[in-house]
Amino acid sequence: MSSFTKLIVVALAAVSVPFVSAQTYTNCNPLDETCSADSGLSKWSFYSDFTTGDSAFEDWNTTAGTVNSTSSGAAFVINEKGDAPTIKSNFYFFFGYVEVKMKIASGTGIISSIVFESDDLDEIDWEGIGTYNYEIETNYFGKDNTTTYDRATYPNVTTPADTFHTYAVDWTSSQIEWFVDGVSVRTLAYEDALDGKNFPQTPMTLRIGIWAGGDPDNGEGTIEWAGGETDYSDAPFSMYVESVKIINYNPADTYTYSDKTGDYTSIKLANTTSSGTTTSSVSSLSSSTTSSSSGSSTGASTATSTATSTGTISSSNRTISSNSTSSTPSPSSSTPSSSTSTASSASFTAAAANVLGLTMNPVVALPIAALFFFL
Ligand SMILES: *[C@@H]1O[C@H](CO)[C@@H](O)[C@H](O)[C@H]1NC(C)=O
Ligand SMILES: *[C@@H]1O[C@H](CO)[C@@H](O)[C@H](O)[C@H]1NC(C)=O
Ligand SMILES: *[C@@H]1O[C@H](CO)[C@@H](O)[C@H](O)[C@H]1NC(C)=O
Ligand SMILES: *[C@@H]1O[C@H](CO)[C@@H](O)[C@H](O)[C@H]1NC(C)=O
Ligand SMILES: *[C@@H]1O[C@H](CO)[C@@H](O)[C@H](O)[C@H]1NC(C)=O
Ligand SMILES: *[C@@H]1O[C@H](CO)[C@@H](O)[C@H](O)[C@H]1NC(C)=O
Ligand SMILES: CC(=O)N[C@H]1CO[C@H](CO)[C@@H](O)[C@@H]1O
Question: What is the active site of this protein (predicted)?
Fold first, then answer.
């Protein structure tokens, strides 16, 4: 429930302690305003080995605190109240497979999180609550819809605060599947997320960080969810991330929202080459992401947005299968396609559902966008 981070930011704004820049903010929400294009990961596959030194961070922005490379990987450490070191990929990806090798931090109320976050606040989460050294949380949000906090599941994991585990998500336009050490622990079909309305479907950055959900200044609901108040005399609290692997199912230089729907079919992909701009979009007629084979080339000076898909989402044409990426390099070498167990037995809780309806304002000044779609 990293969206609790939003609540914390709101709470903190009130006492003007600007910590937890958090993982769940946006600098520009394309559903409300016109935003510059997102800088995309233009290759299929991306890998960071955080044991190799500071160069491992070159494709990441540190958005809070300091994160160092150690022999155990990137170290995210809370030494005192207010610490919330966080990194963010400096690119977006659009549907994909993401694998993070992580050891969560131990400590009451300490949250270790892996968050996919888009500009219009679609979100996919893993959160390790340091109070509970036997489980991990999965969660998701669509378009910042935080009216309910009942979407989380808590699959069992063996001593996540003592042991590295591989937390993976396979994210396509038809479903999201969470895996722990290669075993599927949850599958969310597009139509099961309020007929797609709450289904995360826009280009994401990956944000990884640690924060104190149990900070005594947090709301009661947040502290309860985090398993109690954090005692900073127990610090340091350390989370380690050994490596991150990302397969981007729709590589492109830029992603642009062509309207204010937030539908994946509205996202335009573009590559800028010396001879012009190639654009495409993800077809709604397929149950999986299609790569940019439908891209058309246009001359440099006439490069225009040529959305090739205006299809509407038809749930009857969606299949729920694990063959969700047939037109892309299969991630199944790293994800067990035969996994069928779902999180049906995992407990759903509505912890702290009393904290409703809060939204947050951007907390970070708008960065100057480096890339513009129209050139
Ligand atoms: C990270 O490394 C720098 C330089 O070695 C050091 O000064 C700093 O204290 C380290 N930060 C953390 C959080 O360990
Ligand atoms: C990363 O930081 C750079 C430099 O501040 C900025 O231009 C870029 O937009 C950031 N990337 C993301 C994805 O926020
Ligand atoms: C937000 O999600 C809830 C269910 O989780 C739904 O009842 C509500 O209509 C959604 N709100 C919007 C604006 O889509
Ligand atoms: C998770 O662990 C708890 C406590 O050990 C156990 O009662 C429960 O059955 C486990 N759940 C699953 C899905 O294995
Ligand atoms: C952009 O270029 C990448 C790398 O060459 C390619 O895989 C991708 O399909 C291209 N995307 C578009 C929208 O042309
Ligand atoms: C999924 O893939 C397997 C093996 O590649 C194939 O046998 C099966 O028919 C496929 N299922 C669907 C729904 O496409
Ligand atoms: C958009 C699309 O492909 N729609 C098809 C969905 O499937 C039904 C049959 O199940 C077709 O009739 C639609 O044309």
Answer: 123 (proton donor), 127 (proton donor)
